[in-house]
């Protein structure tokens, strides 16, 4: 953890990538290092960056069964989409999966619950809040005109 903090303080690029385009956030997610993942996110790590195989940090966290990292990634704006056009032109793997599909295949109930919350309940709740805010603004506008 201290090494990450030291590198960030020294101006290291938190989105630097390996030959396969794996980023430090992907590595932290793959090995369950929540504190490191959070520090990288705070420092501007791109949560939706893909490697040459179309995997994002979300895929690595799901594959490792790290529900806490999946939550952190969703809170930071991670999207569960399939990278059809990865940076590897030879990536025509028909078995490519979204992170949610991977969670089901791996059978991680704790991770699947996180997807249920962040992909269904949270967006629905946020839509309701937005509707309520819009209605309140409309009502206050009509009352101020009268």
From TrEMBL:
Pfam families: Ank_2. ANK repeats lie at residues 20-52. InterPro entries: Ankyrin_rpt, Ankyrin_rpt-contain_sf. Keywords: ANK repeat, Repeat. SMART domains: ANK. PANTHER family: ANKYRIN REPEAT DOMAIN-CONTAINING PROTEIN 39-RELATED (PTHR24171). This is Ankyrin domain protein. It comes from Acanthamoeba castellanii (strain ATCC 30010 / Neff).
């Amino acid at each position: 953890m201290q090494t990450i903090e030291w590198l960030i303080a020294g101006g290291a690029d938190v989105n630097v990538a390996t030959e396969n385009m794996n980023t430090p956030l992907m590595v932290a997610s793959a090995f369950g290092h929540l504190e490191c993942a959070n520090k990288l996110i705070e420092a501007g790590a791109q949560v939706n960056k893909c490697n040459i195989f179309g995997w994002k940090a979300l895929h690595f966290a799901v594959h490792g069964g790290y529900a806490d990292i999946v939550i952190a990634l969703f809170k930071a704006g991670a999207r569960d989409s399939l990278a059809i056009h990865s940076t590897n032109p030879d990536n025509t793997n028909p078995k490519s999966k979204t992170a949610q599909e991977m969670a089901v295949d791996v059978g991680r109930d704790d991770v699947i619950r996180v997807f249920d919350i962040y992909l269904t309940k949270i967006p629905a709740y946020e839509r309701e809040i937005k509707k309520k805010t819009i209605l309140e603004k409309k009502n206050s506008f009509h009352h101020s005109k009268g």
